Amino acid sequence: MKRGALYRAGSDQCLVPEASLTATAWERMRGLLGKPALRAGQGLIIDPCPSVHTFGMGYPLDLAFLDSRWRVLKLVRELPPLRWAGCAAARATLELPPGMLDAAGIATGDVLEWRET
């Protein structure tokens, strides 16, 4: 798993200071299953991944679906356990703790930038 942070592209505005990026098929398949809930400021980027589910999870997630340039295509707020969400045009999914999309000011059309730490 790669560690880094997500910024608003072309700026120094850090949106997700503790981000993880999947690096293997196993990491993509597992996602957050069996892991504790993300804390404020944390996120997981699953790439490639146009859809996610919360079956087997005990907590909700905020989601941002991203295209190949990491432009936000679709947002899903507080997806509860036992649900599914996706975006056919998405390349990757950013998973965040509930309320983080609004707290970070992430909106449809924003372009995110990964910076490895």
Structural account:
- By secondary structure, this protein is mostly beta strands.
- The chain has one domain (2-116): Jelly Rolls, CATH 2.60.120.1140.
- Helices cover 9% and strands 43% of the residues.
- It contains 2 helices and 9 strands; from the N terminus they run ββαββββββαβ.
- The strands form 2 sheets. Strands 6-5-8-3-2-1-9 form a 7-stranded mixed β-sheet. The chain has a two-stranded antiparallel sheet with strand order 4-7.
- The two termini are 12 Å apart.
- The model has no long low-confidence stretch (mean pLDDT 96).
What is the approximate shape?
globular
Low-confidence stretches: none
Largest sheet: 7 strands, mixed
What is the class in the CATH system?
Mainly Beta
Q: In terms of structural class, how would the helical and strand content be classed?
A: mainly beta
Helix content: under 10%
- Using the CA coordinates, give the radius of gyration: 13 Å
- Strand element count: 9
CATH topology: Jelly Rolls
Summed up, the domain count is 1
Q: How are the strands of the biggest sheet laid out side by side?
A: 6-5-8-3-2-1-9
CATH architecture: Sandwich
Summarize model confidence as the mean pLDDT: 96
Q: What is the number of helices?
A: 2
- How much strand content do the residues show? 35-45%
Q: What would you give as the CATH superfamily?
A: Protein of unknown function DUF192
